[in-house]
Amino acid sequence: MQALTTSARPRIGWGLIGAGGISDQLARALSHVPEARLVAVGSRDVGKARAFIAQPRQHETIHEPVRAHGSYRALVDDPDVDVVYIGTPHPDHIDSMRLALAAGKAVLCEKPFTLNRGEAEAAVALARRHDAFLMEAMWMRYVPAMVELRRLVADGAIGEPVAVSADFGFSAAGLPASHRALAPELGGGGLLDIGIYPLNFAAFVLGDIVAAQADAVLGPTGVDIHTVFNMRHAGGALSQGMCSLRTTTACHATVLGTDGRIDVAPPFYAAQQLRVARGTRPWEETPVEGIDRPWRGNRYVAQVEEVHRCLRAGLAESPVMPLDETVALVGWMDTMRAQFGLRYPGE
């Protein structure tokens, strides 16, 4: 993949597929990255795209016209769009990626990457065929606390890592059955919506998963509303994850080592503090550069910067969230869903 040089493109143009809340967060992040420019928003309803563009966004310093497109095809064909961000419901991801990659655009696709492994493999194969950049938007991996956590583990701060536990849950009791988190036709369920965070965290810290066992409670719409899973990793370490749409959990994570542990302050996926216990010594709060002050815009800024870094370096994927790992993790969610009996329409 040819590097996107600063001289050829001093600012990188972004186009958003989808005009919902998650796209709004990405748009706000772009306004905090000086070399980023939001150039277009695409929606199947052009009025929705125009309304999205018209929303005031705090801290925006760049006031340039943003185009509204009434189709995803028009968005990916926009010549000023360098990167396409996909912020639509899970089942739409694969078709949007096909459009954008075939148009030669770089793609940042919201998690979960796809509904199942087959779709993930197809997207990655297409990106490699077109020599186009592709990345799953697992922003958690790029925030300063996660970078520091991984450094501490790699440097042996707690000895050999042997286990990880993490949970993420909230009550969806007030949501209608048609909400994306509960609707099977929208890829609903706790595992794909929020369970991906403890799953991804465990793989981020302990490496490749080699076995997994899951169980779940299925709700009235047929999707999982409380899920637990145990995993074994290639190095022999074990991990436990839980996700829930029935109850609010602590959103806490712990990494255990042979000579200590690291406690990740909740919510673990957006932690701003780590606590390290080495051997039998008392807890030590570990300051992490950049997380003891307010977010620079929001949590998504660091992943936008990672996309830019990769494009400037001519990389077709991020070494922090490699495509093969994305595919593997989607596959493990397939395995877990099969174990507790959840299939989506069309699978």
From TrEMBL:
Record domain GFO/IDH/MocA-like oxidoreductase: where: 147-262
InterPro entries per record: Gfo/Idh/MocA-like_OxRdtase_N, Gfo/Idh/MocA_domain, GFO_IDH_MocA-like_dom, NAD(P)-bd_dom_sf
* A Pfam family assignment: GFO_IDH_MocA_C3
SUPFAM superfamilies registered for this protein in UniProt: Glyceraldehyde-3-phosphate dehydrogenase-like, C-terminal domain (SSF55347), NAD(P)-binding Rossmann-fold domains (SSF51735)
Q: Which domain of life is it from?
A: Bacteria
- Keyword Magnesium assigned to the entry: answer is no
MF terms in GO: nucleotide binding; oxidoreductase activity
Keywords of this protein's UniProt record, alphabetized?
A: Oxidoreductase
The Gfo/Idh/MocA-like oxidoreductase N-terminal domain, residue ranges:
13-135
Family according to the record: Belongs to the Gfo/Idh/MocA family.
The protein, known as: Gfo/Idh/MocA family oxidoreductase
Q: Which organism is it from?
A: Scleromatobacter humisilvae
